[in-house]
Amino acid sequence: MEHQRCYIYDPDQADGRSAKRQRTAKLASQAQLPARLQTYHELWSLQNQRIQATLEESEKVTQENIATFIRRTTEGVRDDLAGIPSGLIVAGPSIASHGPFFDRLGRRIKNITDSAYLVLTSGESPNLKTLLKNLIKKATSRVDDDDEEDLGRPSVSSRNAPKLLDFDLGHLQEWRNRNRVQSVVVVLQDSEAFDSGVLEQLVELVYSWRDRLPFVLLFGIATSAESFEDRLSGRTTRYLEGQKFDVTQSDEIIEKLFSAIVASTNVPLRIGPGLSRRILERQKDHVQNVQDFSDGLKYGYMSHFYANCTSIFLKDGLSFEDVSPEIFEAVRNLPSFRIRVEMMLEKSETNEIRSLLTSDQDLFQDTTANVDQGKQILYALSSAAIVFARLRHSLHVSPNVPLSSIWIRAASGDMVGSPLLRETMLSVKKLPSDKLDQLLTAFHGLDVTYFPINLSAYHHELTDLLKKSSSSTPLRTQHDVRNESLRTTVVAQKVLLSKHKANLSEEDNAYSDLVARLHDELDEYFSTTFIDPRALYLSEVLIYDLKSPHTEVFQPKPRFAIERALASPHDYLGCECCGVDNERAEDASLASTQPATAILYQLYLESGAIINVSDLWSAFNTIAGDAEDENTESKTMALFQRSLAELKYLGLIKPTKKKADHIAKAMWRGL
Amino acid sequence: MASAKRKRTEDEVENTTPRKLRAQILVNGEAEDHDAPGVQTPSRRARVLQGVENGTPRSILKKTGLLNGANGTTPKSSRKLEFQTPTKSPKNDTPNGTPTIVRNADRSARRKSNRKLVERTINGDDSDEEALDEEDELAQNILGDIEDEEAGDAVAGPQEEVPVPETPSKRGRGRPKGSGTKGPGRPRKQRLPTPPPQELPAHEEYFWQNRPGGAKTSNNTLSAQTLLNHDEYFQTMQQYEERHEPEMTFLWELHSRAYDQWVFELNEGFNICLYGYGSKRPITEAFIAHLYEHLLENVPYKGTKKTPKIVVVNGYESGITLKEVLMMVASAAVPSNLKLPNQTASLVLFILQYLSENPPQHPVPLIVNSIDSPYLRKSGIPAILASLAAHPSISLVCTADTPNFPLLWDVGLRTQYKFLFHDATTFAPYDAELDVVESVNELLGRSGRRVGGRDGVGFVLRSLPENARSLFRILVTEQLALLIMDGDHGGIGEDEPTATPRNKKILQTKSAVSDSVQGVEYRVLYHKAVEEFVCSSEVGFRTLLKEFHDHQMVESRKDAMGTERLWVPFRLEELEGLAEDLSGDAF
Predict the structure, then answer these.
(1) What is the pLDDT of residue A163?
(2) How confident is the model over A295-309, as a mean pLDDT?
(3) Which of A261-265, A351-355, A434-438, B9-13 is predicted least confidently?
(4) Which of the residue ranges A32-36, A103-107, B264-268, B543-547 has the most confident prediction, judged by mean pLDDT?
């Protein structure tokens, strides 16, 4: 089996040993796993719908523009066109998202317009001939792919005409005659990666066929339309009738997704601030794409429901019978439960504590109530974050802080007392009446479920005030800078600066009063809702914020893992023999009990760029070999050879030609 | 001649004594072009020496220092101590080494280096790297000198057992390898190297680890008998018991607890990639069994006789092709009555399209062991595997062995793969993945051992006709003659008799002089063969050669001039043995 290249697994041939061993007892945390997974599926499918909706939404406009463009070109009389209609689609630098984008675009174009949609990538188009072959193959469906047969087969309808070569666009024309499509849309997905010669040839060819085949070219561009144009010669450019389309950049989409999935109000399970920050950073640093982002969130959900048995309390309509006793035990062991009990002890609510500790029924009711309450608190928090972001947006406070970072701050509990909040509230204080008007209008469409301030009352008051006010200038509050002047006095050769408040008009006074009330209310609102969610009772159920499986699973450090395994095998093996030596001084000799490859690797680490194998062997033999017993030398040698081969297999060493019996080091530790 | 030479070589291998080196300096000082076939210094050492001699002024200084204060310097490398013959050492210590000789040596060194420079410019094809190396050596010399003294001051005294002469140490800063090999009780490290600086920034650490001193190594070579051949290796390994067996089983069991989780992850549309040190085949094997059971208990199979099809691919098997993989996937995913396209590209499309149109009830599991093996790295394959993995009806579980495997995939492929990575360090030996003996031989440029060494060649030759044997004998003697000739006239610079064929390959590109070392010219060999009536036509000659090629007893390559050269991939000693056997009618 192990030396077969590939095969279909057959349990009879595999040895029974592994089959037997793998029947391990279910772990305790697996209690009610199916129920939890079902909850996961319910919650995630909701989230997934949101993701899809957001994606559709964000790309809708561009896609529709492109589709309209294609439709327009096909409807118009073709002779009018000077060149090939072509769309330059600036899809942004994250090439990973290009593929999915063009897939979605294709679906939409096929839906809206009557056209063939053919995607070509640079990989399948090294030269014009192959490009055309692929193009024709893709267009004329894949029923007959066998190239060998393709060559021999006479082309369908042209019995009398000379046989067409398989890269002749005549095939395409024939196919179009049969299938009657309005236009042939050819997408060059990664136009930058195409050879510019091929591009030019293609454009020229398509241009010459334009009277017979209604081509539309779409170029996927990662850089800019200008640099695309630079690559083509002037003549080729003249053949093209281009229009530029900007695709929503992935970071904008990510921001939207984040608002929709993590920061929006109606989210039962929160991805915590730490993890959110991590996911966003990964997006930014490694130009990832939307798919990866949602995968990250999905994995967060998966981990929560898979590994945390208390997550079952997120299930809707949970009844007491659904919950097994182990889960209550688990709840009683939650840190936040303990904190709560301690707090109750301080208040000497011993009866309640007793009932929580002894009665599962009571605990169930208490927990479900608290989970609901916690959800509400978190909804309010998210809502406040949204209000805050809107507030900043309409105040035009710079720097522009996106909702994602506001939410992350809020969720990590450092919003109250933060400079961000203070600064924003200060600018609220100074708000002139025209700005306030805008602000209140901007808040109109807000979901007011968790927003206690009656804005429309303020709005009414404001309009009343404005009506009363005769002057055309907006009303200003007493904190407005324009109502203050600096007075400089020189007393005994010292300059004294003093602030002087201008006298306020009656309207201004009334207005100041209004703004002050609004400010106080907002301040009150923010300080009550921006709590630290991690201090919340049952936050373990409501928030998933674990770094551990997430980082390893998405950002593995395979090299570090291997280096660590070899440099300190004790970390993995946890054996008694090798650990002791490691605790001794750095320079202590290598423990001979370590696995052979580990010993050799550590010797390898000590050496320079090239290594004499003979000396390496002697060193290895000293450590791993048995000095007294000469017979074991062959064993040591076998181990040495195996270790050497393994190091080579791992790519750590390679043969060198510099000296006889030398090997070259190919990797440096920690670099 | 040959046997005498052989003896000397063995000598050389066993103890490359510093004493000899020093003797050689003196010899060089007197007559630098002295014909010294016995002094077998590969070119590298010659350079090293030259480096030392360049710095003679310091050695004079040191010598006076020795005169004044007995313990002024310490030997740089402890390992030299062992080979030091005490009888000789006083001679070198005493101011006997008259200044004139030293100056002579100095001058000769300078002359030699000049000659080398001229040579290099004439040949013009010495790599920059070499030149750099030399600079490094020089720098190292100077640096090493300072360090030497520092270290000497630091370590001197207690560890010094015998008043040892200053050795023309070229050990470099690295830990002297092989030190203390024969003395079991002695501490391995006598001289502490400058402690590696902690927490350097990455680039600094690179330079630290690449510092020039590290490149100095001894000229010891492994004797042919030391390495085990296949039989010996397997015999030995069969008796070997892993000391860490329980711990490895424990690790294995740790991983096996995650199987359910992995199944869940696969069901959610992710693919899994396992990494970490140790063969991960045992894990995938067990996981496949687990997955199989899991699938059997679920919808499409429960209560029926149907069995799930799990495709397993062993990427490490040499010669695995994409087509095989695809055919196997197709056989699991597509009903057998459908005709499959022949070309790989269309086969992929076909499979993917079929799966999109007729999605199976569960994704087809595809297990790939060692997805980063060289065979699966070839251009295009990762992209196609990724497009398979990206399909919702295929779930991929793969293992990756090399530390830098993520570099195989760009962002686009990585997204397609949709991997979740799990550390699956097992410490298990790479039994199936590796051919240990072969790979070590390759590493050391001893691929000749593939045929089974001398005995293997003999075995093959015995089964061949007389003519073939004669041809082989001609080839071996010619090659030997070339080697020895080169060793004779080339002087120290080109003399590299213990070189492996690999070494010769670069030598050939390096200088025109050593070009002749590189095997026997095809034409020459042919004419010789015709002369000796081994064959009458080139066709016959080719046929004979082909047999050797098939048994990997002969290697050939075109040199820079485009002439084909042939050689037997053995080292000098073995060649001599072979020649003896051949002429002695041993076969």
Answers:
(1) 73
(2) 91
(3) B9-13
(4) B264-268
Close Cβ partners of A427 (under 8 Å, ≥ 6 residues apart): A395, A397
One-character DSSP codes across A265-301: S--SSEEPHHHHHHHHHHHHHTT--HHHHHHHHHHHH
| Residue A491, beta-bridge partner list | A494
The answer to whether the beta carbons of residues B349 and A142 sit under 8 Å apart is: yes
- Residue A24 in contact with partner chain B when CB distance is under 8 A: yes
Give me the residue spans of the domains in chain B.
17-215, 245-423, 444-583
Please answer yes or no on whether A562 and B500 come within 8 Å at the CB atom: no
- Positions of chain B with pLDDT lower than 50, given as ranges: 1-102, 124-131, 148-192, 490-516
Q: How many CA atoms lie within 13 A of A368 on its CB side?
A: 14
pLDDT tens digit string along A604-620? Answer: 888 878 888 888 888 88
Q: Which of A8, A612, A669 sits opposite B328 (nearest CB)?
A: A8
Q: Residue A546 pLDDT > 70, yes or no?
A: yes
ipTM, two decimals, is 0.85
- Residue A98 with chain B: CB contacts under 8 Å: 412
Pick the residue from chain B with its C-alpha nearest to A632: B236
- Structural domains of chain A in order of their starting residue, each with its CATH number: 57-248 (3.40.50.300), 251-415+530-555 (no CATH), 558-665 (1.10.10)
Predicted confidence at residue B98, as pLDDT, reads 43
Inter-residue contact B253 to A22 (CB < 8 Å): no
Dihedral angle sign, alpha carbons of residues A468, A474, A477, A482: negative
CA-closest candidate to residue B264, choices A29, A33, A316: A33
Average pLDDT, chain A: 82
What's the confidence (pLDDT) of residue B99?
A: 45
Class of domain B245-423: alpha beta
Contact state of A96 with B290 under an 8 Å Cβ cutoff: no
Q: Which of residues 42-101 of A touch B (CB under 8 A)?
A: 94-99
Higher pLDDT, B239 or A585: B239
Contact A569 B227 (CB under 8 A): no
Distances in Å between the alpha carbon of A347 and those of A170, A344, A351, B332? Answer: 88, 5, 11, 66
Average pLDDT over residues A567-576: 84
| Beta pairing partners, A89 | A220, A245
Distance in angstroms (rounded) separating the CA atoms of residues B263 and B295: 10
Inform me whether the C-beta atom of residue B143 falls under 8 Å from chain A C-beta atoms: no
Q: Do A653 and B221 touch (CB under 8 A)?
A: no
Three-state DSSP class for residue B567: strand
Element (H or E) spanning B273, and its range?
A: strand B271-275
Q: In Å, how far is B514's CA from the nearest CA of chain A?
A: 15
